[in-house]
Every structure is written in C-alpha cells, then in structure tokens.
Fold this protein.
Amino acid sequence: DEQRAIARQKTADFLKCDIEELSFSHNTTEGMNLLANGLPLGPGDEVVFSTLNHAGASVCWHHNAELKGFKVNQFNFPINEVPSLTIDDIVYIYSNHVTANTKVLVFPHIDNIVGMRYPVQEMAKMARDKGVKYIAVDGAQSIGMISLDLPALGIDAYAGSPHKGSQTPKGTGLLYMNKSLQNDLNPMWVTWGQNRWKDSIRRFEDYGTRNLAE
C-alpha cells in the first residue's frame, strides 16, 4: 500500500492532477466501462462519439444503452479529409453531432487509426457551450507520448493505458476523474472496503485482492 501511494503521487504529479482525481485501473477499456456503467444516464440522454473511437471506448456505451435506455450517436468521421483538417474543422465536425440531448461526449486524444491529435481544450469548450454534462477522453495513445496537464484540458475524465507510451507493465491503467464527476458516478464493483474509501477516489478501484506488486 505504501508503494502504491508513492506511485499514485508520482503519477498525479506527472499528469498535473490532484491525487484524489486519479484512480488505478487495468487499462483504458476498464476506465470507459466504469463511466458507461456508473454515470446517471437514461431515456432521453445521448452519448456522442465518432467511428475513430477505439472499440474499448465504444462498445461499453452501446452495451449500456440497451440496458439503461439512453441513445448512442456514433457518426462516421470523414477519414479521407484528415490530412487537411484544421482545429476549427475538427471541432465543427463534432459540434454538428452534439444536440440538446447530448449528455456525454467521448473522443480520443490521439486516435489509433490515423494518429490524429485532437484539440481537446477547444472541443471541451464547444461541448460545454452546448450544454454537454460529461466529457470523456481516451488517452491510451497519448500518455508518455506528449506532455499532459489534465485539469487544464477542461474535461471530466481521461482514461489511459500507460503500458503503451510509458511502457509500464500491462494491467497498470489509470483513470482521471474530476471531483464533480466522482460525485455523480456509481462504482462499477463494490467490496467490503467501500465504507473505508468513502469520499476517496479509491472507491472506484477497490475490487478486492489484486496484484499490488504490479
């Protein structure tokens, strides 16, 4: 536990976030599943993302849409236009698919298909201006590859797989969640330790026995 606390502080410092905004997961897919399972979504709500989303940041939303009754709007991204797109173009493409019902916007920081780097701050501002409640970013391809200041991005969640760019052991993922989102989120799993972690981000990662050495 002591070593895990040291690792959490070092990682929070690396990402420039508060230690109570950083949860240790297994990978990006787990982080996205925690959000899709735990956010308060239902009939009338909409989740928006494009075909450039990795399956790990997409399938969980489709699965929970069937269970909870919210809508998924997965639109076709104009992949052939990528080389000529400007920041404003990218924001405009997403803006056209955000509606008054959009409660969650999901997109990668760097996608794994064409390697486009998304203008996260500009997209977050657009989404906020249009009333989007939660903004979740897939950071699987960016952690360890570019400098990151997660709070400065203006988003609510950032899921990552540091075994890629940072070359940590597989099974060591992370999920940044700001305090506002944490207040709205239900844990994906619970165990005897839940009461112990009340008001701590640890309540979203405690699933019982785990490989602490990893």
Summary: The first helix runs from residue 2 to 15. The two ends are 12 Å apart (CA to CA).
